[in-house]
Amino acid sequence: MRQRFGLPVFEAGWVWLAGAGPGDPGLLTLHTVHGLAEADAVVYDALVDDRILALAKPTAELVFAGKRGGKPSPKQRDISDRLIELARSGKRVLRLKGGDPFVFGRGGEEALALVEAGIHFRVIPGVTAGTGGLAYAGIPVTHRDTNQAVTFVTGHSAAGEVPEGLDWEAIGQGSPVIVLYMAMKHLGIIASKFIATGRNPDEPVAVVSNASTPDQKVLETTLAKAAQDVAAAEMAAPAVICIGDVVRLRSGLDWLGALTSGRMLDPDPLGEKGSGAEQDGERQQRPNLA
């Protein structure tokens, strides 16, 4: 494969910071698949699908470095030190992170630690959940009839609280579509902040849990009811949340639902037939994607 596609040589003592995408192994890049096949050690996050880890060579050391909110997790400094230790021992190290390593993935921090330690590294971008995960739910983050801008926002700070350094008013008033990462815990507070900036309480919201995996679930609701409906539907993290009129397009673009259930798509999701949204609080569970 390396010769056919001109893929780079994975040198001993190097660290590749690679994105594993939102879950579906088919969304891996060729560089990441190549890295899995060549790595002596794979340091992976909690959100990396087991089917992806199965692509690692049999002799590779698999090192769990997952961080999950509210649960005991490795400290970031310890993860960086482990990468440095493995590289200095002469191993080819693949640091495998869910989504894209540089989109709310702390890949920048790990890369800077490698720079400081004098370790050679390569960055392999991945499909981030804010675009790929929503696409699997039939939601485009941009559409010329709804928005020409989109804002990606983290739902919690390094301390696990609602971020204090964000200008919520500017985001709420200036961005027609907002995509939230890691926001399930504080969804009610964040929704209230946006409503306080003047956003419509009835604005459509979609919550996509376990995007692009066999456990994917999609909840369509409104900004005012989002937290309440998420709790009632027992939606769980990891999830990506989309706020804005692009959510209405799902009735016409839910290709996965049409593919697995054989139904026709709505040809006019933004037209006079209605918003196309499901009933508030209704949860759809998708069939196995494997």
TrEMBL record:
EC numbers for this chain: 2.1.1.107
Residue segments, region Disordered:
264-290
Give the stretches traversing the membrane. Answer: none
Q: State if Nucleus is listed as a keyword.
A: no
Q: Has UniProt tagged this entry with the keyword Transferase?
A: yes
Keywords for this protein: Cobalamin biosynthesis, Methyltransferase, Porphyrin biosynthesis, S-adenosyl-L-methionine, Transferase
Indicate the family of this protein. Belongs to the precorrin methyltransferase family.
Instruction: Name the chain's protein.
Output: uroporphyrinogen-III C-methyltransferase
Source species: Pyruvatibacter mobilis
Lineage runs: Bacteria, Pseudomonadati, Pseudomonadota, Alphaproteobacteria, Hyphomicrobiales
